[in-house]
Specification:
This protein has three helices and three strands, in the order αβαββα.
């Protein structure tokens, strides 16, 4: 998880939501403890769900992360990212641009 975040230019402090899919409720405590070791101080919104199975039958847990990265991913156009960020901030404040969005 942390390696994937680092590759995208982020770190665990930028994670805002996690989802854990486990194949047996008996794994809940162990998975929860591992989650707490990484995210205990960060406290993202989290969900743990017991599922019938995962794609590979050897897997017992799958985790999804959502993060808000404050720096653009490698290879992205910084100006485009800045423009999108500014537009999202205007929308969040209830403002509209001259173009109507």
């Amino acid at each position: 998880m942390t390696a994937a975040l680092a590759e995208a230019g982020g770190d665990p402090t930028q994670v805002v939501r996690t989802r854990m899919y486990i194949t047996d409720a008996g794994h809940a405590d162990e998975v929860g403890e591992a989650h707490g070791e990484v995210f205990g101080e960060i406290r993202p919104a989290s969900t743990m769900v017991v599922v019938h199975g995962l794609l590979d039958p050897r897997w017992v847990v799958e985790m999804e992360l959502e993060a808000v990265l404050t720096t653009p991913p490698l290879g992205s156009d910084k100006q485009e990212v800045d423009d999108v960020w500014k537009k999202e901030q205007r929308i969040a404040r209830g403002e509209r641009s001259a173009a109507g969005a």
